[in-house]
Amino acid sequence: MTAKDLNDAIDNGHLVFVGSELSRLPPQDAAAVLDAMDVGDRTIAFRLLPKNDAVAVFDELTPGAQAALIRSLGTAEIADAFDSMDPDDRAELLDELPANVANALIRSLSPAERDATAVVLGFRRGSVGRRMSPEYVHVFPDDTCAAAIERIKQRGRDAETIYTIPVVDHQRRLVGVASLRDLLLSDPEIAVDEYTKSPIYAYASEEAESAAQRCLDRSVMAMPVVDQEKRLLGILTMDDAAEVVEAARDEDEARAGAREVLKTPYLHASIFAITRARVVWLFVLALSAILTVNVLEIFEGTLEQRVALALFIPLLTGIGGNTGSQAATTVTRALATEEVTPRDAALVAGKEVRVGLTMGAALGVVGFGVAAAVYGVDIGTVIGLTIVSVCTMAATVGGLMPLLAKTVRVDPAVFSTPFISTFCDATGLIVYFMIAKTVLGI
């Protein structure tokens, strides 16, 4: 059953068939089909689901699709589904909604769920505190394993996960973690402290992407999230961490292509939404491209004396832009996986200088040979030296820009491939014409 099949059935008035087919699908599959439908048909199809199925399917929809349904149906019809969501998913959905709609939904929550959601909403967007679940089971190190198991039985039904159990002292400071397997298979009278392991944890104010990546890299089922005094606030589960990393990767890929992420499937996105995702970056690139035009205007006299120099401008700007983009992409990835930090700027610069110089030398020799054979040794020398210089400069700048962005708390993906390409175009042309004036004496 595909989204197109459901769209056709709705258009033909076969509503009973639509409801029946959706009800047969697992919630994840039904949500995937609804996500791919346009807003109008999605709303109709969702109304046809039985109440219990609708609650389960709503929880599996993307935040953008959830928000669209709420705007179409109203808060009253979504209240049950909203109440059943985990607090971290609820907070993500509230970010998509207008303030008045968000407030109405929060008022519809039970007091306990409202308090749990407020804990998550108290942290800034992008922090792991905003993505953690405050619903967990904790035990104390002086508990017996039997007492710990009993506590898990009593409170585990409402917890996000029970496979990794945070161990806290009586001031709620994190001491470690214990495995449910160890507690179940142990001597009931042995203290939990015997099975407590050193925890891998995150501070609530930490960037969600870096915490999530650490969670996945260490294969942690549930990572405790603490405040600055190391008091336990919540947990980040592996599946939530995977969602955070995937969303960050989608955003980085989009910005590397000079656009923003679309929140709805492409075929169902409005022209305005697609335009908005692209046009801002085009304005930025257009403004930066003015630098290139200004450089050409400054060296107009040089070009008039040796017209052959103009023929190599596309080659040199292309090499510089691609070299800078390669370096930026590599370092951005290294930042995301915490292989480097802004403190490693000197090491990154040193490495990229050497890489750029090596690539420039190899390409420069080829450029010199081709240009010298056709336009003479003097032009060949200019091209060869420029390629070496541009590659070295572009690799260094491209490698350092993501580190600079991280230092000033800007997403390194903002320094996208097109932006760096345009920057390298302007500076590369300045280097090109300066070398030409020196070598050719013009």
In brief:
The protein is mainly alpha-helical.
What features would you describe in this structure?
The protein is mainly alpha-helical and about 450 residues long. It has 3 domains: about 5-125, MgtE N-terminal fold, CATH 1.25.60; about 145-255, CBS-domain, CATH 3.10.580.10; about 280-440, Orthogonal Bundle (Tetracycline Repressor, domain 2), CATH 1.10.357. The protein is about 65% helix and about 5% strand. It has 22 helices and 5 strands. It has helices at about 5-10, 15-25, 25-35, 40-45, 50-60, 65-75, 75-85, 85-95, 100-105, 110-120, 130, 145-155, 180-185, 210-215, 240-255, 270-300, 300-305, 310, 315-335, 345-375, 375-405, 415-440, and strands at about 165-170, 175-180, 200-205, 220-225, 230-235. The strands form 2 sheets. A 3-stranded mixed beta sheet has the order 3-4-5. α8 (about 85-95) crosses α10. The longest helix is centred in the C-terminal third of the chain and has 31 residues, at about 345-375. The protein is globular and about 85 Å long.
